[in-house]
Specification:
Length: 265
């Protein structure tokens, strides 16, 4: 009986460890953590060999390395840790501050006004993650979300056209804001820094970012680090409605397929 219980406990033990290791490996696959793990494995092997063959100085050096291991991990992964914490630390005051239906229509109209003028644009829509810390790099504003205002901000001759604007609720609260850049390989090669900035912020926060390409006039709604497709105005409207509005657009499902590679209407 004892043996039987022991067997089941062992099995549960091994299963839990296997599942944890599996999910951990899936989590870090393709990231810098893999190289880190290989590095750590080499250090462990060298340490064991040093102990085996009595290489005291090497052993002493590596034992100190292990005692500082947590600090080393924090330094190496500060970017990943910061991203994870930013996603956890949501702003309780932000709830209910998402733009309503009228504002969504204004955002879409403004976006396509930029497209028709051949201007680039970067519009960040704040959700639960607070973005105040980004304002320091730009200029604080309190302006309405209107096509005229957004065109005035992104007009290539305007002093504030560089960088992003931030939308909080029904207002534009900052302009000329610098966003964190994603790694170069996070976006396809034909996209430049404007798109990398959109992807970078959406990797770190739950913000939605509308990017208008100056070069091609393509419009992307970037979310969770994904650039997605070039959107038609209707597809952009439906996407924004489904992400932001409590009044879900009835047409959302019908029009999701309108997101076309070609599509600016
Ligand atoms: N870190 C950043 N944060 C916010 N805006 C940025 C950032 N880096 C670049 N930009 C904006 O992107 C503009 C440059 O875009 P660039 O041509 O390099 O990118 P792109 O992705 O190819 O966009 P486009 O298709 O519009 O040319 C800058 O003038 C600036 O307004």
């Amino acid at each position: 009986m004892d043996n039987w219980q022991f067997g089941i406990t062992d099995l549960a033990d091994i299963t839990v460890v296997a599942v944890v290791v599996y999910f951990f490996l899936r989590l870090i696959r393709g990231t810098r953590a893999v190289q880190m793990l290989i590095g750590v494995a080499i250090v462990v092997v060298v340490y064991q060999l040093a102990r085996e063959f009595g290489l005291f100085t090497v052993e002493w050096m590596f034992s100190h390395f292990f005692s500082a291991f947590i600090v080393i991990l924090v330094v190496l992964f500060q970017q990943e840790i910061r991203r994870a914490l930013m996603r956890v630390a949501v702003n309780p005051l932000a709830a209910g501050n998402t733009p309503g239906e009228t504002m969504i229509a204004m955002l879409v109209e403004s976006t396509y006004a930029l497209v028709h003028r051949g201007w680039g644009g970067l519009i960040v829509i704040e959700r639960d993650t607070g973005l105040r810390h980004l304002f320091e790099s730009g200029v604080e504003l309190d302006a309405p979300i209107q096509p005229d205002m957004i065109q005035a901000l992104f007009c290539p001759d305007a002093p504030m056209h560089d960088g992003a604007i931030i939308v909080h609720g029904n207002r534009i609260v900052a302009a000329r804001v610098l966003l964190p850049l994603a790694q170069a390989n996070a976006v396809p090669g034909d996209f430049g820094t404007r798109h990398r900035a959109a992807v970078g912020l959406s990797e770190e926060t739950d913000a939605l970012v509308i990017v208008v390409s100056e070069e091609t006039g393509a419009v992307h709604l970037v979310e969770e680090g994904q650039l997605g497709n070039n959107l038609t105005s209707r597809a952009l409207h439906d996407r924004l409605s489904s992400r932001l509005s409590s009044l879900q657009s009835h047409a959302h499902k019908d029009h999701e397929q309108d997101e076309s590679e070609a599509g600016i209407d």
